[in-house]
Amino acid sequence: MTIRRIVLVMLVLVGITGLGNSVVHAAGWCVHPAGAGRCFASIQAAVDAADDGDRISIRAGRYIEQITIIDKDLTLIGQSGAVIQATPDMEDTLSAVAGVAGRPIILVTDAEVTLRDLTIDGANSAEQNEFLEGIAFINAGGVIRENLVKDIGFGEPRLPIVDGQPRYQGDGILVVNFAATPRIVTIAENRVVNFNSNGITVFAQADANDPTIANLTAHVVDNTVIALGPNDVIDQWGIYFAGFGFANPQFSITGTLRGNRVRDQVTTSPHPLPGIAIVTINTYNVEIADNVIENVNVALAANQAFNGQILHNQIGGPRQDVTGATGLLLSGNGIQVAENRFKKLEVGILLFVEDFNFGSALNTAMEENRFDNVALDVITGPGSSSALTARTPLIQPKLWPR
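Below the sequence we write its predicted structure tokens.
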């Protein structure tokens, strides 16, 4: 070998060695129900052993445990058949980080975490596990993708009344940010079925001492959310997306709600509040597009929305004979409503005017919307006296009556 080639080889080796010293390589861990193959037997044990940036592969099997991830940036990926099931006696892990009671099967806080290809099974254990939740991200960011979240409830529609107040329980996915660090969360391609209260809940709440912080960017895309269908017990919401207490809408919550399929949010008399497929409140520059909504009392309630777009949604009313079926409730400023299709509804679009709670719909641009079998295409007036005003305060962390 010539001197020149020897020098070149040495330079390459030195470069590789230097690169190896400067790059942190994430470790890989595995979990197996029986601890086979030098894997951990529990997911929590693997989480406890892992460091920032590590990946945990969860092999097929049923893991009956409750998982908490605090201040660790991790990736948890399930192999086909990996099921995480609620225990019969779950702990209230939410109080310490959110100030309200809750028993999530997976809790992530102060971290950036990816959860993928997992089945999260609540086993309809809300009777034993008060305020049961599937996945909860509290002051955390990351990705929740291609998971099945199911049976987060009682096994039948239920709305417990305690001290004369309703206690909505049973959320599939809960994402909340009220810390100073802005967060970005992607919730994509999940299937959320057989939940009791909300399928996907996402909101930001400002710090009372500084209403310009705690903003949240969330992308809720290509999920399937299926509620329990017609019942006279509880008003179910498919996707809830909101911000509270901010000095300016641009500090609140932003992102996308796109390509979701949401259905079967229907309540009947005597329960007074309608089921709603998608609820947004106090949003900034949010795109709501290409969603397919079927068999609901109210398809979309977008209130105090600023600089947003509502485009190309397919909206269908209830299959049952119920009163007040509405496609879109709208208030805020600068919203484009275009190329949506509304069918089988009493009201296609209700634009709020001087509503006591949500104000008016200002500077709304509507074009090329289609109305099929709709009694009233577009009307104006107040209209928030039902579901939104009655239930919204029950969802904010500081006001949730737990």
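The helical segments are 3-22, 43-49, 95-98, 387-391.
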